[in-house]
Predict the structure of Transcriptional regulator.
Amino acid sequence: MKRLLPPLNALRAFEAAGRLGSFKEAAAELHVTHGAVSQHVRLLEEWLRAPLFERHNRRVVLTPAARLYLVQIGPLFEQLSQATARYGFPETVSRTLSVNAPATFTLRWLVPRLATLRAGHPDVDVNVETSNESVESLKDVYDIVIRGGPDTFYGYSMRPFLSEERVPVCSPALLQRLPLRIPDDLRQHTLLHTSSLPRLWPDWLASAKIPALRPAAALTFDHFYLTLQAAIDGIGIAMGPTALVSDDLAAGRLVTPFAGPRLPSRSYCTYVPDGKSADELVVLFRSWLEREGMNSRTQTIR
């Protein structure tokens, strides 16, 4: 039986434009002009005898039927790429995985653990970029995006891999200078804040039944990793996410002065474009993250 195949260059242009949601970005990925992508899409629409995009001034939106078509053909392009890499270019095809993650998470949790990935898979290269933009706002396409969750984004699969809570943390040296026996003793201390997370201390103080407490001083930083570093340096007391301070707690650089309360927090999740979910490097990296996340959860927090 003769195979019913559309023009493959036109199909490639449609897949890129649909996946990226933009003719301009598809043109950049395919190294062609915007006009070439538009022409290929029109050719495919003529071949299918059905529209693929609804055109609204300067933006295009997939039709419902085209959205389903994209979901079906997207993985096929990924499978074709993998098969070609294994068969035709085993020595030359790059095995670099592109990852986008928040800066504080990358600095305090991901980077210290990458050595274990390299030890087990020395042939896998990872390119990590940091950002706090939401998944749908990212301008580039990554193999894996790490963000809080769980959330749902069209065109992405989501899996949680690391849970955490938030608790006050400080250096042991600070407690030697000025002990903390009960939460009310925070009146004598400096509380460390992060401008992007203004509710952490008020919410914890409310949970501790001392919402009106006024500390001796307050210090605010624009990045969370600076706030945590200030706590390690003995400048004050920070609200520490247990996942991101677990190594410091284990090493004795930080301590938790109170048994509770602990504030609930969102989990860290991987978000992967649907067309990349079956990629062997994505599967490997996701599985590694989940194992490391399990190891972090089993660490004893003192």
The chain has a mean pLDDT of 88.
